[in-house]
Amino acid sequence: MEAGRMQHGGVDLAWQRLPGRGPCLVFLPGYRSNMTGDKAQALVALCEERAQSLLLFDYSGHGASGGAFTDGTISRWTADALAVMDSQAEGKLVLAGSSMGGWIALLAALARPDRIAGFVGMAAAPDFTEALMWQTMTPADRAVLQRDGVLHLPSAYGEPTPVTWALIEDGRRHLLLGSGIKLRSPVRLLHGQADADVPWETALRLAQQIESEDVQVTLVKDATHRLSRPGDLLLLRTTVAGLLDL
Fold first, then answer.
1. Is the pTM of this model over 0.70?
2. Tens digit of pLDDT for each residue in 156-178?
3. Which fold has domain 2-127+176-244?
4. Which candidate in 99, 174, 185, 191 is catalytic?
């Protein structure tokens, strides 16, 4: 695995790359996640076995990349993804996005339609800043967010999650679920029905909105948002391998 860093927007972005045959699989991690997680490493093992090219990276403010997390927005993280993809991956791409990474991957696919050979969403969370943050906040929380510019929300995964007003405002410029999504490559959506963070119905809405005729949704009744149990990771590997073989 090759590793490197590149400058983008005044920040060092960390990436890892596995040379191999195309199309190149690109993993896009979730909100406050990074390229060292279980799903990313499952895809590393899969691509090593297949001699498949793979690109991993961390958004600004995440993992091994520079920058402050609270400076991040959907626009900035999408620009990070495009910068790394454009400079470190050649030819056709299969994008695999987890949670927020599913939203970023959709935006990246729409920005580079001629390069996209496939899309995999794992508990994909398009529009989450509006539907799952702003719309679920109490009036008091909204007032604090607008007054202070940041609100710290409790998280089941560790330290409280900082949510910025800039993230909410910027997210509104990238909402996808209200109209057709001009993605025409094969699409595979995986979602757990025990997901307490992103409703599994989101996958069905995505399937309806995506214009591709080749869209498959797999619901796992007892899987949570993490989708990282051995069986979940096996499903991910099988799904991605099938898409790469099309």
1. yes
2. 777 898 999 999 999 999 999 99
3. Rossmann fold (3.40.50)
4. 99
